[in-house]
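Contributing new records

If you add data, match the layout below exactly. Sequence lines come first and carry their own label; structure lines follow with theirs. Keep one chain per record. Anything else will be rejected by the validation script.
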Amino acid sequence: MTDLFPAEGGCDCKAIRYSLQCKPLFVHCCHCKWCQCESGAAFALNAMVESDYVVNLGAEPEVIHTPSDSGRGQMIARCPQCKVAVWSKYAGAGPIVKFVRVGTLDNPDLCPPDIHIFTQSKQAWFQIPEGTPAVAEYYDREKYWPAESLARRQAMLPAIEAYQAGTAKPYPAPDLTATAVRALILYSLLEFQSGHATTIHVTAEGTAFSIADDGRGHPLDRTVEGTSYLKFIYTHFDYPFEAGRSAPIQLQGIGISLVNAMCSELALTVTKKDETLQVLFRQGQLQSSNRTSVVSDKTGISISAKLSAHLQTTGVNTKALEEWLQGLLVSDPTLKLVFNGRALQAPEQIQPPISTTNLKAQ
């Protein structure tokens, strides 16, 4: 097979072109649920090869950090135009090894699978060809790799070990819990800017978070073209974009619905002077809604949620989030902001991450 390389490949629109300079170390046919989801197919076919032997001949791919079952994520290189994935890099070997998507080769027949992995979650209708190794999960490299590939890996070990030891910078995992808090707090900031809220409470621990304010609360009887306003903005992806609709409402719906879709569960409470609405969403879908009459001297909203487990396995960076929240106080010290039960004070001599005045003007 060595005389069949170099071999070229690329994306659909031909903006990305690359040359695979040598035979891969090993070819995985992975049947894990993550690969099924990312590929939209029954499995993913990846050819492992030293990164130096994958030569880029065209446009520079865009690299996207994607969660993985290990919790360490992977970096997927995609065409910036047609978005086809051409290779991945995993946290184990980092930039040293590329997992080339075999289907992007001009002649993918060059790289049939050497092994089927994570067959415990394979599609029931798929039959593994007789004679091809298959394992329920992962495998022992020494048992399955050919001697030549093991020798090539041995040559890479110093670079891989240096990367794992921290000499090479690891891929940062995004703090999606903090991102969700930052997105949802914008509604409370607008209530503050308009003079309807004075205090915002934020909690965050692990992948759970909550935001509450003493503003007016969401309108309960408002509708958007016959649909409940709350349903429209919390499950906005169920409604197509239309030019005639209010742009602020659609933008608010996109932001809130995206956060809602990221959460395994999100509970919303809207408090008015004479009634309370409690709404529960799971996986972004409305589960229950309960509206009751009350007599209250308080108004506002409270949102408590938990990020879906597959999106973030590490807890929120509370120190970084607290610093970001403190930055909000720089632009307007009259805002009362409580984080994890403690009133925050504006730090000195830092620039605000958001100008609350500018936010209102927008």
